[in-house]
Amino acid sequence: MKPAELFDISGSTALVTGGTSGIGKMIAAGLAAAGAHVVIASRKAQAVTDTVADLTELGVVTGIVGDVSTPDSARALGAEVVAVHPKLNILVNNAGVTWGAPLEEFPDYGWEKVLSTNLAGVFHLTVALLPALRAARQNDDRASIINIGSVDGINVPEMDSFSYSASKAGLHQLTRHLAKKLAPEAITANAIAPGPFESRMMRFITDDPESLDRVRASVPLGRLGEPDDIAGLTIFLASAAGRYLTGTVIPLDGGGVGCGSPARLG
């Protein structure tokens, strides 16, 4: 294959959960610009409408209102997607929440909400979408599951975000397990573990110049992640170029994990 063909995802159908802001919106924009039909999902109807309007100039972008915070809502979202798009080439499980509180005061709700959304929701939505992923493979197309984890699921974070780091570590292992189970069907499953990117979760850092400078200084490449960084890796994993890669967790953090210098966000 020619290099351009290796990375060609034009004509693919992709679902990006949590695609209305932050990393999710960066991924949705990149996939749309690369020629995929991108379906963004979010629980807020106005955010979906606004994001579709923002990204339509890049390519074909549609939206669905739904969330993955409970098993029933995740399955309902999956059923709605399959009804409209019976063939799905790319599933990006990006929707997520976080919570921070001192160890002795960490609330049950903060634990359950984060684990339900970041881990259980990914599982239930993925299972609900298996018919559409399998339909893509039956047509001799690619089918890829890309889970958005975090370097906080690899390194121990400075912040008291106990449920978040546990959920992302669990998501990394779920990715490996899905990869092994689905490999005989040639459906790949990989995880991206981002470091510091500009997003709603990072606003407490990016809005404070001193904190932002400290985080930049802790990243070996000396900067935050940018939209092309996350979009490029996602396109690689979804394209023919990444067809022999499954069960991996790829840190995308400017070298923090690889160089032994994790960004200090606390």
What does this structure look like?
The chain contains nine helices and seven strands. The chain has 266 residues and is an alpha/beta fold. The chain has a single domain, classed as NAD(P)-binding Rossmann-like Domain (Rossmann fold, 3-Layer(aba) Sandwich). Strands 3-2-1-4-5-6-7 form a seven-stranded parallel beta sheet, sandwiched between helices. The longest helix is centred in the middle third of the chain and has 31 residues.
Report the sheet-strand fraction. Answer: 5-15%
Q: Identify the strand order in the major beta sheet.
A: 3-2-1-4-5-6-7
Percent range of helical residues: 40-55%
> What's the number of domains?
1
Low-confidence stretches: none
Reported for the largest beta sheet, the result is: 7 strands, parallel
Which structural category do the helix and sheet elements fall into? alpha/beta
CATH topology: Rossmann fold
Overall, the morphology is globular
Task: Tally the beta strands.
Answer: 7
From the N-terminal CA to the C-terminal CA, the straight-line distance is: 46 Å
Q: Spell out the CATH superfamily.
A: NAD(P)-binding Rossmann-like Domain
Q: What is the radius of gyration computed over CA atoms, rounded to a whole number of angstroms?
A: 18 Å
Mean pLDDT reading? 94
- The secondary-structure element order is HEHEHEHEHEHEHHHE
> Regarding CATH, which class?
Alpha Beta
User: How many individual helices?
Assistant: 9
Annotated CATH architecture: 3-Layer(aba) Sandwich
